[in-house]
């Protein structure tokens, strides 16, 4: 199973749009949110499918 931003959002306890903002470095994301999302990305070994 591939990891999606939905999985990251669930683990980080935030919305999919917040994860998208962190991943794309667009819009505001608090340092705490950014840290939670980045920790979830590391935990899930997420790599973007670009």
Largest sheet: none
How many β-strands, per DSSP?
Answer: 0
> What value does the average pLDDT take?
94
Give the helix proportion (percent range): 55-70%
Q: Outline, from the CA principal axes?
A: globular
Written description of the protein model:
The protein has one domain (5-44). It is 62% helix and 0% strand. It has three helices and no strands. It has helices spanning 5-12, 16-24, 31-44. It starts with a helix and ends in a 6-residue tail after the last helix. The model has no long low-confidence stretch (mean pLDDT 94). GO terms for molecular function: DNA-binding transcription factor activity; transcription cis-regulatory region binding. It holds the Pfam family LacI. This is LacI family DNA-binding transcriptional regulator. Residues 3-50 form the HTH lacI-type domain.
What can be said about this structure in brief?
GO terms for molecular function: DNA-binding transcription factor activity; transcription cis-regulatory region binding. This protein has 50 residues and is an all-alpha fold.
